[in-house]
Amino acid sequence: MWNIINFEVFRALKKKSFWIASVAPLVLILVVIGIEYLSTNNAATNAAQQAQAFSATAKIGEFDDSGLISQQLVAAQHITIEPSKDAGVTAVKSGELDAFFYYPKDPNVMNVEVYAADTGISFSPPYNAAATQLLRQSVINEVSTATKNNQAVQILETSPAVTAITYKNGAETEGIMGAIAPGIFVVAFVLLYVLLASFMISSTAGEKENRTAEMLLTSIKARTLITGKIVSIFILGLVQLATLAVPLLAVLLLFPHQIGLPAGITLGSIPLNFVPILFGALFFATGLLLFTALLVGFGAMFPSATEASRFIGVVIISAFLPIYAFQSVVNSPHTLIVTIFTYFPLTAPMTALIRNAVGSFSIGEALGSLAVIIAGAIVAVWFAVRAFRYGSMEYGRRVGIKELLR
Amino acid sequence: MREIAIAKNREYTCTMAAQSSVPAVDIQSFAMRFGPKEVVKDLSFTVNQGEVFGLLGANGAGKTTTIRTLLSLLEPTSGTLLVNGKRYTPAMAATVGYLPEERGLYRNEPVFDTMVYFGVMHGLSRSDAKKRVLLYLERVGLGDKTHERLIGLSNGQQQKIQLGVTILHEPSLMILDEPTEALDPVNRSLLMSIINEQRTNGATVILVTHRMEEVEQLCDRILLLKDGIRALYGTVDEVKNTFGTTVIALAYSGTLPTNEKLYAITKQLPHYAELAWREGVTADEILRSLARAPDLHLTSFDVRRPTLNEIFLTLYK
Q: ipTM above 0.85?
């Protein structure tokens, strides 16, 4: 099998098209980051508008140890002053307040702390911006009266760091932060599936087009060949992920202030919870195996990769179907459609990855969905082996499913 | 290549001695049905160690199906098909060189990589495969194409690579399905010399073809399939003796007389004819009769057995 893996991997790595496909998403992401960096003002304006809207409607409390917060602004925005930090946190937990802002003695050194009710997944929670805006606006007033206040100048030059803790039903939740680590598997799955789909199909259709299948099948078992091809695709996928991830991580580590993650998130603050990461990895690997095996199998059924591509759109689209129902998958995980998506083999990987990332999976549901995906992957590998064994010698014609099952 | 061949020869000799009682190929009561269509019916034959065996038949006769089933690419409907006494599995790939009818290679990959890949697939170590590939490419005059992609080679050059992939591991059984199909004369000659070389080394060769001249040149025994049924089986001489009728081939000018007592004209062209003699008549009598014919000038008088091609055509009429 090593011979197959060696041949398949290196022949792909030697191709320009592989590297173009690998680097293209990175270039696109960097372009988007660049555009976002250049349009910081727009983003800031949007954040300010969201913050204003939040401040106007939400019940907000604050406690100020810095002495920088303008009492005038607090009163104008109907923000209550809590007797202590603990009292403010308790008020959020009990639902009396939507958000509580704690300003430490020196916001340039210590983080502004935000405690808020969990309102779901959002990369730009408005309470963070509202807390920052209150501080900055207060400082602007201060600077106008005492222009030599260095602390105030520094706050205006470098936006103070904000940490947010959210609560749901009195218990602390991780919000967007908790979704980041397991969410990486969602992104990786989508990227690899998009980048490797044509490779998956052509890995077997190519053998048929090149008329090499017969020679291979007399030299190696179909199961070994297909396994070797699937392992090769996984290795190439990891190479493509590394091509994307390494430069992005380098940029984020080298320029944490200039180009940061959304909502002021830093790499070090991302929680790494074992269970969701483990399930994310399992859903990613088994889901990718399922679709790789399916596409490899379909590739063997059709006379050419081009012809195969026309017919297997359904398989490809079904993987992404849960994304179209993203809101339901995230916010209403127990509706009928999401339940179907969770346990139907073709939609299960993406649904499971998303639900695992946003924390709407119980262990039982996760195990159930994983079992469905694993069973689907086993059937898909069996199908791929059979399709190659019996379909790859049918040159110039499509082999029907019925023929393969005979 | 020569050293490798000598070393391999010794292995062959030992293996052959050990397996001398086991046919290289043993097919008994083989039948194959695809849906309602029975493409091979109750086929039995053996191929002895070290012989060149011709598996003949028109397109659709069942030759390729038989070979594919022998190599376990297809499951037989019934019957047993054995290679060296066992059902073929890919684990036996080191002993078999198979050139399929539908053949090709990775057109976008370098020659060297492709050949090494298949060499390793056929049981060679990577380093051994690399050495053999270089020697083979030098031998067939493609030493300068080692790192070129196959798509950049001419058809003839690609055919040489294809042959190389089949014989690189010096198999003890070569199965060549229509090997000369689409080969140019240079490559056909190369293939013939390779088959002869392998045979001299002790390898068994199964030649699947419908080119009768190649069969007459190379094969010890033949089997002719017609509509999935064994129509002829034996040595070339046995087949000719059993199924052919000796004919007299004439080259002449003038008018060829008829003579119902001595012969019948079975084929006649302006200056060529074939005669079938009557029972009890000798060739001498016919020659004397023709020599006396007034308007006939004979340029050749050849008593010969029919060619395999003629037998083939007769069977398929």
A: no
